[in-house]
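Bumping my old thread because nobody answered last time. Still need a sequence for this structure:
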């Protein structure tokens, strides 16, 4: 997994030229990329959400489309529309902004549920269907959606089915004083994004995505993942627990983190460090827990602390063949 680690370090190092002091958040974005999953960035305005998406697209040399969601948007504004060409005497498809590689869905919760639903097929099936014709999306394809957790006036909260499509939910947060001073210095003359160049090729991206799938998950780790997910369904503080898609997402994210760290096997540390980002947005907190000001993040953390950590050798298996 040394190749994936080196690949990830190149991407992370390039992103850190623009996004200062947010190594952990950037690693989550790269994990999402390696899993070909989508990421929901929930944070206040002005902390670099848009810059992160644009920087990622430039680092990967991928096409970048930004969709600014508003209440009056229609599904066709996202997927595209067929327009009649009088000269050719036929309908022609005009692709919407969702047809790209790195997509920024800005303030996704400001769109109506009907427009939000237009993203479901693209995010899950990697295709869009317009007027009965299916259009396959390019590879890699990744949606980075943002929403403001403070201002809810005139918004439409994402339904559970939509939230479940996001591999990770993350927050950037405010920078430290020293990091914010560095941001001022870096942008005094020119924005670092303008000088950013791609550091990986399309072939390297697709190869890394395929290699991550080969990272070994021991039976003990698989049981640990499933038990963690099942406990979200059994908790008295949870009205609706995580689905099996949550278990699958946690396993895939664990593989990506292990590869990012240079390992070809998953450890319990990988699962513990990603559980909140992968599972917290997939559960619905019960009304009683909400009255007690208990967040979904806190519930997942308490479940992790209450669970025994599996032991044993996570790197070896009698039937496993390792190519050195």
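Sorry it took so long. Here it is:
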């Amino acid at each position: 997994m040394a190749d994936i680690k080196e690949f990830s370090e190149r991407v992370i190092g390039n992103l850190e030229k623009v996004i200062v002091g947010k190594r952990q958040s950037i690693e989550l974005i790269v994990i999402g990329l390696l899993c070909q999953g989508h990421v929901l960035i929930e944070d206040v305005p002005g902390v670099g959400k848009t810059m992160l998406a644009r920087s990622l697209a430039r680092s990967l040399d991928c096409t970048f489309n930004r969709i600014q969601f508003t209440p009056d948007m229609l599904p066709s504004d996202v997927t595209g529309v067929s327009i009649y060409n009088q000269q050719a005497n036929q309908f022609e498809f005009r692709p919407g902004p969702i047809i790209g590689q790195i997509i920024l869905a800005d303030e996704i919760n400001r769109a109506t549920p009907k427009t939000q639903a237009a993203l479901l097929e693209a995010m899950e099936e990697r295709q869009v269907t317009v007027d009965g014709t299916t259009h396959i999306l390019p590879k890699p394809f990744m949606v980075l959606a943002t929403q403001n957790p403070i201002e809810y006036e005139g918004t439409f909260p994402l339904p559970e089915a939509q939230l479940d499509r996001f591999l990770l939910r993350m927050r950037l947060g405010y920078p430290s004083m020293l990091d914010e001073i560095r941001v001022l210095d870096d942008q005094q003359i020119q924005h670092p994004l303008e000088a950013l160049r791609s550091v990986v090729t399309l072939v390297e991206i697709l190869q890394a995505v395929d290699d991550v799938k080969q990272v070994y998950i021991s039976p003990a780790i698989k049981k640990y993942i499933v038990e963690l997910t099942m406990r979200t369904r059994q908790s008295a503080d949870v009205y609706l627990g995580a689905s099996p898609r949550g278990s699958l997402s946690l396993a895939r994210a664990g593989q990506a983190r292990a590869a990012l760290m240079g390992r070809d096997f998953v450890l319990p540390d990988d699962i513990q460090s990603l559980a909140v980002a992968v599972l917290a947005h997939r559960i619905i907190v019960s009304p009683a827990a909400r009255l007690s000001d208990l967040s979904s993040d806190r519930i997942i953390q308490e479940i992790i602390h209450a669970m025994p950590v599996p032991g044993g050798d996570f790197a070896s298996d009698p039937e496993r063949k390792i190519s050195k």
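The chain has a mean pLDDT of 88. Let me know if any region looks off to you.
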